[in-house]
Q: What sequence folds into this?
């Protein structure tokens, strides 16, 4: 076994331990603290358009706080628009697709007009079978549609780390596009496009974006959200 192989193995094990620790800390929080942070916009008196970001530590703003995470930046963008909006950050650090499937029923107790689905990154880091991830994400989509048929869903994709092997990486990438096509969903192929792999845009762990990284995410996500908001505004 070469020194490079050993170093890769140590890195992977370290990431798994880190993710497990983050998950343990997050689960210790109360549901209201860990899962929802909403701020209504007071423009107008019509019923607000409710936008919910359902994801993992990327959505939750790991280490930088929810106020600097991309959902808050989308929230700020909405301030410049006419209308009434409520934005909810339902990100939970360490969350897997299986964990998201377990907690989505609780999240859907509140009304949601736009459900932004950002999950799967932790599945890829842990080497979970892409077919299992796909089933879990489909389960979340199904629950949203059965609970709230009028809710629109925006799916964001994720990439698996290259150390998982070319075939795994290919299967993992394709599962998101397959879900988008099967369910006729608007789809952002990679939530971390232009951010992943750039040390200047990520924290020292190499996984989680810095504040600047989140600004890039918000900027690139907005063109996917904006048309949906426009359609809702004329209903």
A:
């Amino acid at each position: 076994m070469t020194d490079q192989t050993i170093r890769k193995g140590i890195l992977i094990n370290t990431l798994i331990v880190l993710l497990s620790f983050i998950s343990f800390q997050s689960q210790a929080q109360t549901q209201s603290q860990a899962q929802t942070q909403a701020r209504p916009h007071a423009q107008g008196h019509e019923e607000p358009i409710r936008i919910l970001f359902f994801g993992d530590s990327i959505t939750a703003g790991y280490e930088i706080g929810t106020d600097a995470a991309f959902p808050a930046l989308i929230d700020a963008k909405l301030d410049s628009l006419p209308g009434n909006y409520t934005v909810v950050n339902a990100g939970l650090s360490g969350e897997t697709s299986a964990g998201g499937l377990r907690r989505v029923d609780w999240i859907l107790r509140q009304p949601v007009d736009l459900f932004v689905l950002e999950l799967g990154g932790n599945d890829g880091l842990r080497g979970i079978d892409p077919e299992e991830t796909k089933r879990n994400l489909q389960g979340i989509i199904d629950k949203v549609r059965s609970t709230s048929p009028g809710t629109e869903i925006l799916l964001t994709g994720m990439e698996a780390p290259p150390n998982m092997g070319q075939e795994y990486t290919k299967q993992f990438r394709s599962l998101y596009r397959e879900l988008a096509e099967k369910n006729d969903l608007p789809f952002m192929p990679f939530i971390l496009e232009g951010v992943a792999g750039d040390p200047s845009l990520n924290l020292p762990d190499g996984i989680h974006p810095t504040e600047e990284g989140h600004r890039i995410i918000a900027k690139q996500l907005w063109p996917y959200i904006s048309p949906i908001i426009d359609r809702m505004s004329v209903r």
In short: Residues 32 and 90 are 9 Å apart (CA to CA). The longest strand covers residues 49-55. Strands lie at 38-40, 49-55, 85-91, 114-118, 152-156, 187-188. Residues 3-27 form the longest helix (25 residues).
